[in-house]
Amino acid sequence: MLNNFLASLPFMTETRAELVINGFLPMVKAAVLVSVPLAIVSFFFGMIIAVTVALIRINQSNSIFHRFLVFFVKSYVSLIRGTPMLVQISVVFYGLPALNIFIDPVPAAIIGFSLNVGAYGSETVRAAISSVPKGQWEAGFTIGMTYFQTFRRIIAPQAFRVAVPPLSNSFIGLFKDTSLASVVTVTEMFRVAQQIANSSYDFLPVYIEAGLIYWCFCFVLFIIQSRVEKRMDRYVAR
């Protein structure tokens, strides 16, 4: 029945309908087992980098070591933001072996994605932290808190609410960008779609189906993002 329905659509034939039906579960499976975990792990490590870079840049220390750190993280952010993610992943997987550094496909993809998320996320986190009045820092120092205690207990909860929407969008974008991992032979959803299309030499229906599956996953992420933002609004309103 489904086969007949798909075959009745424009540009579809029975062969294409069968191809789309047979390709659906493998692509969804690859999305659930590879693409989503890849995005989550990369985003987690990327946020660690982002917060670290943001804290280094907003720290007011004038020591030589801190100045070196600021120069280093600014150079890192500039380099990552000024080059395509595809190039970054390719350098990690295909370029580092020239230095006798060999990294497996999945870790290489995670490193590339994490570095990219860390650079872009650091600007979001820095802006969110800067939006908190400086008096909040001074209040924490006044009652004897250290720099990191003040950040963790006072600044971070307030900055987190500001950072949630843009960081949620970054995660959704990262999920879509996991398709680039196919370049380093990671068998995520888009690579599965490529394999199916290559086996049949019929690319249009398979790639359209892959795009629709990406859209469905992103739609679920949009709903989760909306609910998280509403919950944060209620929390702040209390």
UniProtKB/TrEMBL annotation:
Membrane topology category: Multi-pass membrane protein
InterPro entries linked to this entry: AA_ABC_transptr_permease_3TM (IPR010065), ArtM/GltK/GlnP/TcyL/YhdX-like (IPR043429), MetI-like (IPR000515), MetI-like_sf (IPR035906)
Protein location: Cell inner membrane; Cell membrane
Keywords: Amino-acid transport, Cell membrane, Membrane, Transmembrane, Transmembrane helix, Transport
Protein transport in keyword set: no
Classification via PANTHER family: L-CYSTINE TRANSPORT SYSTEM PERMEASE PROTEIN TCYL, MEMBRANE COMPONENT OF AMINO ACID ABC TRANSPORTER
Protein name, entry field: Amino acid ABC transporter permease
Alphabetized Gene3D superfamilies for the sequence: MetI-like (1.10.3720.10)
A GO molecular function held by the record: transmembrane transporter activity
Native species: Pelistega suis
Sequence similarity: Belongs to the binding-protein-dependent transport system permease family. HisMQ subfamily.
Transmembrane segments: 33-56, 68-96, 204-224
Cellular compartments per GO CC: ATP-binding cassette (ABC) transporter complex
GO biological process: amino acid transport
Pfam families tied to this protein: BPD_transp_1
UniProt domain ABC transmembrane type-1: residue ranges: 32-225
